[in-house]
Design a protein that fits this description.
The complex is a heterodimer. In chain A, 32% of the residues lie in helices and 22% in strands. By secondary structure, chain A is of the alpha/beta class. A two-stranded antiparallel sheet of chain B has the order 1-2. The chains are: A alpha/beta, B mainly alpha.
């Protein structure tokens, strides 16, 4: 699993930031000025090697989805660079951007609303191929059928409409649609959180098989920690728009370093009767991203015994604490030799 | 699945057609009664001539059966209509069916041109607005469509006539063709003459219907634009133009189809006031003249046509919904 780390990075994200202006209040209506901005993604940097799966976890509203969309340029990043295969995606426009979309695809969270209800699912899968001139006419029909078989759907279903399918089937269609343009990387934005648990496993296994067969790279966004542990090689933990810890999946789950990660992992139920787990219960709500606190974003809820005023002054850098294990906490000493 | 869907479509059409017949029958009855109990008849109003004696009027009334009890007249009228006989137009001195046959092509030409222009233009404007909501273009076009949407049709018709026929004499004032010279023109000149006469009333009607279409269509496009499948379409790498015209517009056509269904009767009954202002010899003009002259058979026949096309128009819209939205099929 860790062998993927030795490959060169396919995707390099550097200091990515996304602000959403808050359009409200007297100042805006009088002067058209934006009083405040929600900093949804704040100085996020990471890279993904070819063939690797990076899992991104964090609670609702921490900016996971926004980050995924900013990388895909489905929303415009405020600043930062996204280098995919040597090309800075953040500066592409028009036709160059559209042809880049062929290489970087996405599977969305909601399989019910992310398919055009007026299009047969076959036409939806086919459209990408036509746009990118990958296949036309009968060849395209054939490829649609092959893709349907590959994701475990009856090829005859291609002439049906989305409302005739179940959630799991639709997400298979979503995967087939993403694969139709032969991407190198897929951003999976909570692809299974809308599905039943039994169906989740099927879709996850399908995605793993496809990754093995096609050498795909995944950016896998989820809030379900067990799902991420199952599929990811490396995991990044997000809190209030920042990545606060990143390490290989095994390392992160066995040795969480950042207090937030520790609290997050302690909340995962363990199916062992009689085992007492010391659950860390976080108090309060995360601070407002419209007015993020100075210093460590997690300070207000942190349970670290050494937390003090320094934490409110210094923004903790993402430091390598043990080999290949990065955490943003100034109270955790680095154990590197 | 397919078969069941199709059978239910046929069933819908049949039951809706039966409903339409009932509606038309009820409307016919109401109009028949109303127009007969209204004061005056064809021989009091139109032939207000001192040389016509009361005795002559009575003889004429007897001739046309207008002295019979209302119920008997009604039954006789219905049995005639059922056999396709719409009676004799008192004011035109011709069979009603011939009057309508002459007027219908004129109305189809005017209303057809206007509806095509209005709907195509309205949808086009809405797409332009929805691609850049809140921009100066959007606000300017929005104010323009609001202006024409709020404009009474007869007033707009008069203003168009004043500006483009009187102050700027680019177009003829009224009529469908030149009353004198049309007969002597060659085919090309005759066509040009027709188009020149068509332009003002058609543009007036197109502005009115296009303004409504643009407002409804823009609102619906903006409702659909944030939907998830639009993001999917962008993620595929489609151009914004294709996203808008193929994915968004197809999901935003329902209100426009409703408007189209409501507008279809205009094709057959005419835009009464616009035809009147521009003296366009179409259905609306004929029916209005019929009302003024108490021409019972002509007015009743006109209302039957109107009622029939209103019900058929809404049936047509319902069928179009299922073409536009596969989820409606088979319901």
């Amino acid at each position: 699993m860790t062998s993927a780390r030795t490959n060169p990075a396919l995707l390099q994200v550097t200091r990515l930031r996304k602000d959403f202006p808050v359009r409200q209040g007297l100042q805006h209506s009088l002067f058209g000025r934006n009083a405040a901005a929600i900093r949804a993604v704040n100085d996020v940097s990471f890279d993904i090697a070819r063939g690797e799966t990076l899992g991104v976890v964090g609670e609702s509203g921490c900016g996971k989805t926004t980050m995924g969309r900013a990388i895909l340029r489905l929303i415009e990043p405020t600043s930062g660079s996204v280098v995919f295969d040597g090309i800075d995606v953040a500066t592409l426009h028009g036709a160059a951007l559209r042809s880049m979309r062929r290489k970087m695809q996405v599977v969305f969270q909601d399989p019910f609303s992310s398919l055009n209800p007026r299009m047969t699912v076959g036409a939806a899968v086919r459209e990408g191929m036509l746009i990118h001139h990958l296949a036309e006419g009968r060849a395209a029909d054939h490829r649609v059928k092959t893709l349907f078989e590959e994701v475990g759907l009856n090829p005859d279903y291609a002439s049906r409409y989305p409302h005739e399918f179940s959630g799991g089937q639709r997400q298979r269609i979503g995967v087939a649609r993403a694969l139709s343009v032969e991407p190198e990387m897929i951003v999976c934005d909570e692809p299974v959180s809308a599905l039943d648990v039994s169906v989740q496993a099927q879709v996850i296994n399908l995605m793993q098989d496809l990754q093995r067969d096609r050498g795909l790279t995944y950016l896998f966004i989820a809030h379900d920690l067990s799902v991420v542990r199952h599929i990811a090689d490396r995991v990044a933990v997000m809190y209030l728009g920042r990545i606060v810890e990143t390490a290989s999946a095994d390392d992160l789950y066995s040795n969480p370093t950042m207090p937030y990660t520790q609290a997050l992992l302690s909340a995962v139920p363990r199916p062992e009767p009689g085992r007492q787990t010391a659950r860390i219960v976080l108090q309060g709500e995360p601070p407002s991203p419209a007015n993020p606190p100075p210093g460590c974003v997690f300070y207000s809820r942190c349970q670290h015994p050494l937390k003090d005023d320094d934490c409110t002054r210094v923004v903790p850098p993402l430091e390598e604490k043990t080999p290949a294990h990065f955490a943003a906490c100034i109270k955790q000493p680095s154990q590197l030799p | 699945m397919e078969l069941a869907g199709r059978r239910s479509v046929v069933g819908t059409v049949v039951s809706r057609l039966l409903q339409a017949i009932i509606v038309v029958a009820i409307v016919t009855t109401i109009v028949f009664v109303l127009i007969h109990i209204a004061p005056g008849d064809p021989f009091t109003s139109a032939m207000d001539n001192p040389n016509v004696t009361e005795a002559m009027r009575a003889r004429w009334r007897a001739m046309y059966g207008l002295d019979q009890p209302l119920l008997e007249q009604y039954v006789r009228y219905l049995s005639n209509v059922a056999r396709g006989n719409f009676g004799w137009s008192f004011s035109m001195h011709r069979p009603v069916i011939d009057v309508l046959k002459d007027a219908l092509p004129n109305t189809l030409l005017l209303a057809g041109t206007a509806l095509v222009l209005g709907f195509a233009g309205g949808i086009g404007l809405a797409v332009i607005q929805a691609t850049r909501p809140g921009s100066r273009t959007d606000r300017t076009l929005g104010a323009g469509s609001m202006f024409f949407y709020a404009m009474p049709d007869f007033w707009l018709a008069l203003m168009m006539m004043l500006i483009f026929a009187y102050w700027l004499p680019w177009f003829p004032v009224a009529g469908a063709v030149d009353p004198v010279m049309h007969e002597y023109m060659g085919p090309l000149a005759a066509l040009a003459d027709r188009l020149k006469h068509l332009a003002l009333p058609a543009i007036t009607l197109a502005l009115l219907s296009g303004a409504a279409v643009a407002r409804y269509q823009r609102a619906e496009l903006l409702r659909v634009l944030p939907d998830d499948f639009v993001r999917t379409a962008r993620a595929k790498g489609l151009s914004e133009r294709r996203v808008m015209w193929v994915h968004v517009l197809r999901n935003a056509l329902i209100p426009t189809i409703s408007l189209l269904g409501l507008s279809l009767p205009v094709l057959f009954t005419g835009a009464v006031f616009i035809e009147r202002v521009f003296a366009w010899p179409g259905m609306g003009w004929v029916i209005l003249n019929g009302v003024a002259t108490r021409d019972y058979p002509l007015v009743t026949a006109g209302v039957i046509v109107a009622a029939a096309t209103v019900t058929l128009g809404s049936l047509g819209a319902d069928l179009l919904y299922s073409v536009a939205d596969p989820r409606i099929r088979g319901r």
